[in-house]
Amino acid sequence: MQKVSLNGVWDIESQNKKYVLKGDVPGTDFGNLVKQGIIVSPLISGIEEEALKIAENDFSFSRFFEITKEILSFNHVALRCECIDTLANVYVNDNLVASLNNAYIPLNVDIKAQLREGNNNIKIECHSAYNYIREKQEKNKLPTNFNGVNGIPYVRKPGCHFGWDWGPCVPYCGILDEIYLKAFNEEIKDIAIKQETNKELSKLYVSCLGAKDIFILTPTNEKIPVKDGYAEIKNPVLWYTKEMSNKETQPLYKVVFENEEEEVIKEIGLRSLYLDQSKDEYGTNFCFVLNGEKMFAKGANLIPFAAIYEDITKEMVDYYINLALESNFNIIRVWGGGSYIDEYFLSQCDKLGILVWQDFCFACQLYPFYDKDFKENVIKEITYNVIRESNHPCLALFCGNNEIETMYAWMNSNTKLLKAYKEFFYDVCPDILKDITNVSYIPTSPVGSDFMKDISSDNHGDTHMWNVWHGLKKLDYYGKRYSRFLSEFGLESLPSMKAINTFASGDELDINSKSFNAHQKCGGGNKKMLFYLTEFFDFPKYFETLPYLTGIVQAECIKNAAVHFRQNKGRCNGAIYWQYNDVWNCPSWSSVDFEGVPKALQYKAKEFFKPITLTCSKEKGRAVIFAHNDTLSPQEIDLKIQEYDIKTDEIVSTFEQHLSLDKNSSEYVMALKTNKDYALKITCNGESIYEIMDRPYKLPLKKVNFNTYLYGNKLTISADTFAYDVCIDSDAIPKDNYFSLLKGESKTIELSKEHTYVNIICANNIEYKKNRVGKALFRFFYRLKPINVARYVFYSLN
Prior knowledge:
Blueprint: E1 2-5, E2 8-14, E3 20-25, E4 27-28, H1 29-35, H2 42-45, H3 48-55, E5 59-67, H4 69-72, E6 76-81, E7 84-85, E8 87-92, E9 95-101, E10 107-110, E11 118-127, H5 129-139, E12 162-164, E13 167-169, E14 174-175, E15 179-184, E16 189-197, E17 201-209, E18 213-217, E19 223-225, E20 230-234, H6 242-245, E21 253-258, E22 263-268, E23 273-276, E24 279-280, E25 283-284, E26 287-290, E27 293-295, E28 297-302, H7 314-326, E29 331-334, H8 343-352, E30 355-359, H9 372-390, E31 395-399, H10 404-407, H11 416-433, E32 440-442, E33 463-464, E34 486-488, H12 497-500, H13 514-519, H14 525-536, H15 546-566, E35 574-577, H16 600-608, E36 612-619, E37 622-629, E38 635-645, E39 650-661, E40 665-673, E41 678-684, E42 687-692, E43 706-711, E44 714-719, E45 723-730, E46 739-741, E47 746-750, E48 758-761, H17 772-784, H18 786-797
Parallel strand pairs: 28-29, 28-35, 29-30, 30-31, 31-32, 33-34
Antiparallel strand pairs: 1-15, 2-3, 2-5, 4-14, 5-11, 6-10, 6-15, 7-14, 8-9, 8-11, 12-13, 16-17, 17-20, 18-19, 18-21, 21-22, 23-26, 24-25, 26-27, 36-37, 37-40, 38-39, 38-41, 41-42, 43-44, 44-47, 45-46, 45-48
């Protein structure tokens, strides 16, 4: 077997000859045009029309390559690429060898017959997906897309490339992965591994084509043969999430496939994992069960890593995976409006112990499943990706689609589109999956008790709870709900000033400016952020404090929900907030902005998702304290609760207790009736969280003076009065941030690198307008807007 890489510099040309350049492959039209300064990045202006003018073009990618006599001596020479996006004809030496129409199915074609010794050429003609969907939509209109361009269900590429309520419309085309030739006589392929595992025994069922020998290497390098596609492993070393295993890396077994030409290794984890949807006292359960242990899922929704392919790097992917682990995530949901997650991401989650929920790539739109060719195309897509992903121990769930039933609950279920939808996700998909995977499946998210039934119910399935934000409910609304599993909920905030400065400066540093409106893709989102900000704070005098303040409000909102649901573990079994990352610099629901700067939410998630911790919810002047242990071993904890008078800077009471926690448990500790002007310092085994008992604008917060001491990459900070939510603003990322300090307390923070600046931001020291009448009028008239009244009513009924 030999491999010939075709990566490198290719000739790129638009059909109208307007754009002719040499560009990098893997790469795209937009990415190469921006990189070479031929066009201004659409991510700066945020104006869709500019990007769509370029997207109207067909682009060709071509190059010459050398083929040796030795390559031609093999029986097969296959042309491979994991992703060509999307509508493309592939020519080798002017011979058409493939016609592609699905970004989720790899290019894989034998081209030996078209090759010759010496110089050869390849040309990939990418046709405009934008033109294609416009033509389709004109002939047969699908329902209006309120998130971007109409007609996107007609083409099998990420829907968010055509715009979403958090991202720009940049429908690029190109070669999105390594492209190469593989010469071979007999190839190892079609690998499938299924398992039946318990604590005593793991039964492995292995199949493939082309392998002469198959065996397993244990984590201790013991060799176990696979005979007739079957192997048994007694007393297997089980795979768990990090919090359950308490290991930095998880045990993986290697399944080795060999023939005379090649060796293929698949790493697997031995575990039992399924979604429990059994009936119980509350309705229908929705709980992941790993090796017999019910778990509370904690994490966030992942969207694509960037709006333009070239902006994605391995370092970026590693950063988000490692940050998720540091933030105590045990699950990441891969959202359906983007792409199926790649092998590298899955392998890292296997190693580190993070579960992955994979949506199939259908979101918020009705798709033409009634069309035979379309349906056959997506069946191939699902089959390929399910087989590929199922070998990974981290893969916890396949979900048919995102929010389609929610979006079209108003439509008559007998329409052609909905009848085809139901058949596909409730009949066709389960039929496909039953023979190729053991991974659990749900037809949609949120899912109810059946097709179009109980979609928003707290008693069945998972919930996307947008009553806060879209429905304008108060920040503490979540405490009234008891969903079985909260898989989407969120609040927008501004990104860091570092991110804002990439698209706005001077007079444009205004939340109502042209730049901000161009980068805010959620209708009315900028003013809605102010609406929620004024539930917690007064209006600030200066724009530069808005990223900090909106971030605090976002973090408190998500914390309220996560803590409430975690305190009701067993009835509720997960909290996955919307959203983890951004595809560009913009206001959004993300907890990390596109510059990689964690917002307050990301730091707070590290606290409220911690495996062994205390949480505090607030109910009618009482602080309700729970102790949590998500590990698989009993824990001894010492808790200490101090009531602190913000007015006098004095500790007025102290409560201490020793607790013995059962494994995988959540335990009520106490309900403390306390003063609204008090802060609580809640300490568990030496680590503290701080809770205020009222909105910050109602508290007697005093201006605070900080003492700081920098030594290398460590910053020590102390305060002369109670300091609420201290933020270390620096070009180096602090390991801890957004913390409170009592008078005289000090905290040492580690910075990620050598820094050029460090600023201290604190809610106490921000200058506010203190115009309570103006704030009240703003909130009153904002609520009265017809669209907001309509949404409030809708989300009051759902």
